[in-house]
Amino acid sequence: MGTVIGILALQGGFEAHAKIVRALGAEAHEVRVPADLEGLDALIMPGGESTVMTLGIEREGLGRPLRELARSGTPVFGTCAGMIMLDRDHLGLLDVRAERNAFGRQLRSFEADIEVAGLRGGPVHAVFIRAPWVSEHGDGVEVLARVDGHPVAVRQGNLLAVAFHPELAGEARLHELLLALAAGRSGEGHTPAVSRSE
Amino acid sequence: MHDHADTRRDEATFTVKAGLAEMLKGGVIMDVVTPEQAKIAEDAGAAAVMALERVPADIRRDGGVARMSDPEMIRGIQEAVSIPVMAKARIGHFVEAQVLEALEVDYIDESEVLTPADEANHIDKWAFRVPFVCGATNLGEALRRIGEGAAMIRSKGEAGTGDIVEAVRHLRMIGGAIRRLATLDDAELATAAKDLQAPLQLVRQVAADGRLPVVLFCAGGIATPADAALVMQLGAEGVFVGSGIFKSEDPELRARAIVEATTHYRDAARVAAASTGLGQPMVSLETSKLDDEQLLAPRGW
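YS: structure for the whole thing
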């Protein structure tokens, strides 16, 4: 039995994540109701509209089981709206405040090559779509990347969140990190493609 | 307000344009004519709103030339909501599109619902920084629009009728043609491109990928949660609902129900639950009883 990665599929860019997860040899399971969270080794919270996801999580009763999953140590990776969903004002899992649409409207959306701390193999090609940034964060949060001085990639224990879309640029290294975190947890001795930076 | 000096970046690339449509997937884009309606739509779970002066059902009823909306109304809607705001320009009316770009709308819909401004040419969408969505009734039309720079396609259906039959026809036309392309060899693909009147490079790409190179939504005639689930099962990646929400008896309830059915489109029990107790849908028109000059979908070429 391979690694099973759940992808929240209430709305948004969940299919692009599933494609990368499958390309890395793991199984991708779409998550729409609490029962879909059973047996997951890791979870991805994709991009989309955070207002739609907030309403969907409430409608489906997913808030509590999502919090329990993350607090039990299951690795969780949020991208864009997924980062917002993890923050203090939403699921309250990540000790950050994400500012929605911080870079501006669609005309300000952009692509850029950015350095992500601890990721080997050169800069990440990052696609920012009406993207947020982290406006505040606690001491336990490690900032992995910044744009114009604003944190756009963070990690706090088993929680990883980025303001951009690696899945739209064929960038798989952050998904590899998620799989390595999942493997490290189940003690399979998977060789991580990344090293934790200071 | 924004300091662009630090990190080197490329804005308005095709990846960024098509990327916003990727983030709208699985969602419902709702027509709104006031900031109040936009707020109701956002609170009910709309992934984006389409700002326009009159919904298609009223355009159909009132007649006359239908144009781009008043910028003041668009600004009011932009201030009212945090989700993406789209707006419509007339087919070929590139100055309306320039105005909408200046207003910083998030997407422009070059729409057959408005009265066409050019009967030979669509807007050169590559010339814009803002992304475009365009309607299509078949694969050739979809690929011509993508060739002109559209970053998202919606099947046209027949707007303002509440009759799903044309939406189904157009989705099946697009999906069926994509499936047939996958069976052709290279020589046959060149002939298919000629028959489709579409760029060969895009035809080859569609044949290889088994899908459009951009996100495909469905529009025109969705009035119920079951309509939304139907078009999702037929291959739509999200839905536009025009008159179907704010012309119904209880717009807020119906909006929530269509959002729910779009998420759970394969789960009949959830679609059944979402369909329960919604009150009356919009007053609908049977498309086959309309005169040819009343049809909107044939607009665009």
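YS: worth flagging: The first helix of chain A runs from residue 14 to 23.
IM: good catch. Also The CA atoms of residues 29 and 89 of chain A lie 27 Å apart.
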